[in-house]
Amino acid sequence: MLATTSGDKSVKIWDFAKVECVFTFTGHLHVVWGCSWHTCGDFVASCSMDNTVKMWDINSQRCRQTLRGHVDSVNSVEFLPFSNTLLTSAADKTLSLWDARTVNQTFSSSDLPVVMGH
């Protein structure tokens, strides 16, 4: 399976072997910048310009949780390997860690060095 994100506010799940979209998650209110698979393969987290992260359940094909805590566009999301921890970064210059099971923000900082480029 492959997950893609889009400017149309969606996350699409593809059957890579068949090269076809098997379902589409909708619910973000703005552009979806990126996504990350949980190690177990049952969940995908997506980040959006709507300031949220959503956790999608592949089996039920529904949004399981919405994480709120950033005050600007969430630009990246990543499940840490073999854990239930999500790392997010946002245009508000914050980096946050989240417990994906409880949806609690366990760490947030805007005091980290910012690398400018591109």
TrEMBL record:
<feature type="repeat" description="WD">
    <location>
        <begin position="1"/>
        <end position="24"/>
    </location>
</feature>
<feature type="repeat" description="WD">
    <location>
        <begin position="25"/>
        <end position="66"/>
    </location>
</feature>
<keyword id="KW-0677">Repeat</keyword>
<dbReference type="InterPro" id="IPR020472">
    <property type="entry name" value="WD40_PAC1"/>
</dbReference>
<dbReference type="InterPro" id="IPR001680">
    <property type="entry name" value="WD40_rpt"/>
</dbReference>
<dbReference type="InterPro" id="IPR036322">
    <property type="entry name" value="WD40_repeat_dom_sf"/>
</dbReference>
<protein>
    <submittedName>
        <fullName>Uncharacterized protein</fullName>
    </submittedName>
</protein>
<feature type="repeat" description="WD">
    <location>
        <begin position="67"/>
        <end position="108"/>
    </location>
</feature>
<dbReference type="Pfam" id="PF00400">
    <property type="entry name" value="WD40"/>
</dbReference>
<dbReference type="GO" id="GO:0035082">
    <property type="term" value="P:axoneme assembly"/>
</dbReference>
<dbReference type="InterPro" id="IPR019775">
    <property type="entry name" value="WD40_repeat_CS"/>
</dbReference>
<dbReference type="GO" id="GO:1990716">
    <property type="term" value="C:axonemal central apparatus"/>
</dbReference>
<dbReference type="InterPro" id="IPR015943">
    <property type="entry name" value="WD40/YVTN_repeat-like_dom_sf"/>
</dbReference>
<dbReference type="InterPro" id="IPR050995">
    <property type="entry name" value="WD-F-box_domain-protein"/>
</dbReference>
<keyword id="KW-0853">WD repeat</keyword>
